[in-house]
Amino acid sequence: MNQNEISSELLNRMISRVSTVMVGKEAEIRLVLISMLSRGHILLEDVPGVGKTLLVRAIAACMGGSFGRIQFTYDLMPSDITGISIYHSHSGLFEFKAGPILSNVVLADEINRASPRTQSALLEAMEEKKVTVDGTTYPLPRPFTLLATQNPLQFEGTYRLPEAQLDRFLMRISLGYPTPEQEMEMLSRMQMTHPLERVRPVIMVEEMEVMQREVQSVFVDDSIKQLLVTVAAESRHHPKLHLGISPRGTLAWMVASQAAAYMNGRMYVTPDDIKETAIAVLSHRMVVQSHNRLEDVTGEEVVLELISRISMSPQRSRSGRRS
Fold this sequence. Notes:
323 residues; alpha/beta; Rossmann fold; Helicase, Ruva Protein, domain 3; 2 domains; 5-stranded parallel β-sheet; two-stranded antiparallel ribbon; globular; ATP-binding; ATP binding; ATPase_AAA-3; CbbQ/NirQ/NorQ/GpvN
C-alpha cells in the first residue's frame, strides 16, 4: 500500500468517525475534508439547529491540534479575534495574549451576526495565515483552517458578508434537514450519551500537513484545466449573473478537484472530481442579477446549468493516464 492509499484510508476513517456524530452527512463531511486538504476555509450556511456547530466540533475532535472558537455577536471586537497586547507595569513590557484565531482549527460561529468591520478582521488570517496586532505580525499555526457558520440573511440580527470575504472561503456547504430515518437514528444515539464525547483523533496535524503538500502534486491535465477555464469564461457572460467566477475561483476549483482525487486514492484529476466540487466551490462566488433573484434563481442552479453545457468526457493525458 503506497502513501496515497494510506492517506485515503485515514481520511475515510475520519469520515466514518465524524459520521457517528453527524448522521447521514457523509457527502458534506467529505467536502469539508477536501477543503482542509486544499488549505481552504469553509462556510457552513443553513438554518439554526441542523448541526453546523456540531460538525465543526466533531471535525476538530478527529484531528489532533489546537481548537479555537469565536462566538460572533454584534458587539464583538477585532481584538477578541486576533488577541491583544497587555502592558505589565512592573516590567515595562507588553505581552501578547493570543486570540482564538491562533489555533489549527477555528470555529467562527454565526459569523454574520458581527458587524462587517469585525468580520474583516478575519481577512488577513484567511488569506495570509497571519495576524497583525499593534504593528507586530504573528504567524498562525499550521495547518490552519477556519470553519464558519452562518444563518440565512433573512434571520434577524444578521449582516451580509463582504464579497471580498466570501471569495476567500474555498467552499460554502449547506447541511439540510435529516430524513425521518436519520433523525430517528440521531435520537437513538444521543439518548444516553453524546457521541461527541467518544470521538478520538484519527489524524494528527503533522499528517494533515503532509497530505496538504501531496495534494499539490496531484496531476491536472491541460484538458481538465480547459474545462475549468471554459466554465469560468461562460459565467462571466451569463445573462442571469451580475458577477461570474473570478480567477481566484477557478484556481480554488482546480485545487479542490486535486484534493477530491487524492481522497479517492488517485494522483490525477478526472471530470468527476471537478463535478463533485463545482457547486460548493463556485456558487457563493457568483452574484445573481437582482431581477433574477426575485425569481428565486440561485448560484447553485447556474453552476449546474454551466456544467451541463460543457462536455465532461475523459481525455487521455499526455502522460498516458485517463483524465
